[in-house]
Write a structure and sequence with these properties.
The complex is a heterodimer of chains A (268) and B (293).
Chain A (H helix, E strand, L loop, with lengths): L2 H26 L21 H41 L5 H9 L7 H13 L6 H25 L3 H9 L4 H12 L1 H17 L2 H6 L7 H10 L5 H33 L4
Helix pairs in contact in A: 1-11, 2-5, 2-8, 2-10, 2-11, 5-8, 6-7, 8-11, 10-11
Chain B lengths: L1 H34 L17 H7 L2 H33 L5 H9 L6 H11 L10 H8 L19 H21 L3 H9 L4 H30 L2 H6 L9 H11 L3 H32 L1
Helix pairs in contact in B: 1-12, 3-7, 3-9, 4-7, 7-9, 8-9, 9-12, 11-12
The chains are: A mainly alpha (268), B mainly alpha (293).
Chain lengths: 268, 293
Amino acid sequence: MSKTLRHLALFGAAVFFLMPVYVLVVTSLKSAGEVDVGNMWALPKSLSLETFAAVWPKLDKGMLNSLILAVPASLISSLLGAANGFVLAKWRFPGADIVFPVILFGMFIPYQAIIIPMFYVMSAIGMYGGLDGLILVHIIYGLPITTLIFRSYFSGLSDELIEAARVDGAGMLRTFVLIGLPLALPAFAVSMIWQFTSTWNDFLFGVILTLPEFSPVTVALNNIAGAQTVPFNQAMASAFLASVPTLIVYLLLGRFFMRGLMAGALKG
Amino acid sequence: MRGIRKWGPGLLLVSPSLVALGLFVYFFIGWNAKVSLTESRGYVIDDRFVGLQQYKRLFADETFHNDVRNLAIFTVVFICGSLLFGLALALLMDKGVRGENALRSIYLFPMAISFIATGIVWRWLLNSDTGAGTTGLNDVLGLAGIHSDWHNAQSKWAVAAIALPAGWALSGYVMALFLAGLRGVPEELREAARVDGASETKVYWHVVRPLLLPVLMSALVILAHISLKTFDLIWAIAPLDPRTETPALLMYREAFRGGFYGRGAAIATILFFGISLLAVPYIWYTMRKERGR
């Protein structure tokens, strides 16, 4: 295949991937009078931010909730994952080879298969409705992937540094905090970004575990866009706003995001 | 004693995670299976066993048949489409193109977007109105004269249209997996085959293809398990619509809209076994390969 053809095909694919973004942006920028589903492909005649202004009050609470949710959930899940990964790679105990796949399996399960007992338990211990319960749940179900990311990373480091600390008489915790953690900063970035994105984008846990007041942005978004009476430009503008935080993270730190993706395929 | 002093602290550090996952993954899965053997309804868990009643009723139920059929269609179209598209992109990129990083970022950005936002945009792009009401993709297809009603409201294959947004979201990921696999093939191997007089096509078929099998397997397992679980994407495009409902949505509808815990738990248990059938051999295989290294 000639070089030109290859480039053309790849460019065509890029157009396909960007097509929804085009519709999203173009629709969000039209004035209310100009919006019509029939001409959704047309460029706006004049730029207007009124659609964003109209949806923001319906979305701001959800955005804030998601932020309060995703930051601690990704931070704590990553810290625990770092500890697990460090132990499973560099401070192994008998049976570590069995424990790791047992942890990993949690990454694949359909959440439908745990959600009835989980909803029941969270209600029983008074953690239904608010963000605390949702944070806890995201920390726990994030552990398999964060453990995987850090275990792969620590496995790739040479044993000598750890052994040197050991010989110097440093305990496990000391070695982990003073030597392991500083070395694992890149893995920390990968893990944080992965967890932030998946927590931000989660819908199922949010819709089941929270009261409307504490709902994450995906739930708020679905409520706005799912209502029959909402004009479609508002649906589009809401979808755009709700995606901005993860998109910014992706644009700024895409390198780490891709490494997380590769780790997710168990490829370390 | 020396042994424990050496590895004990490590086990201690991991144990909170192990307890949490033991409870939230394994105990809950078992509990859910137990609920599926009861008549639980009205948003309460009822302890009276009714054996496999829930399963028997599901297997005899038209709605469940319909949803399984939808899932089968969706899975086949979504997996084949994403694999072929992703592989094609990877092969095209393998030799190096100008602006490779930019292209890769464009192909992969849907992974950063929630399925809810993706679904909302695609609901409008897939609008199935005809005639003067034609919008979205049909509009664009109309320009090329291939205006069709393949995803028309009445079609039995409407659920296949969901594979388009799902493929849009995940083809870039498949591309990245294959591209990493392709780049992992040592250049000496390809060169050796070329020296032996093999054409470029033959090099791909005889040298590269066998080495890509593990990547294909990873991609297959990932796509298949996502397809079985997919809930929010379909929910955002067409909630409560029998034409696109799959068991994952039925489970939510039964358990959390209707309060039929027993029935919902049975559907979830079936999904769980379906996914375990894929995930367990996959994890086992990966671990064995790692130990062999």
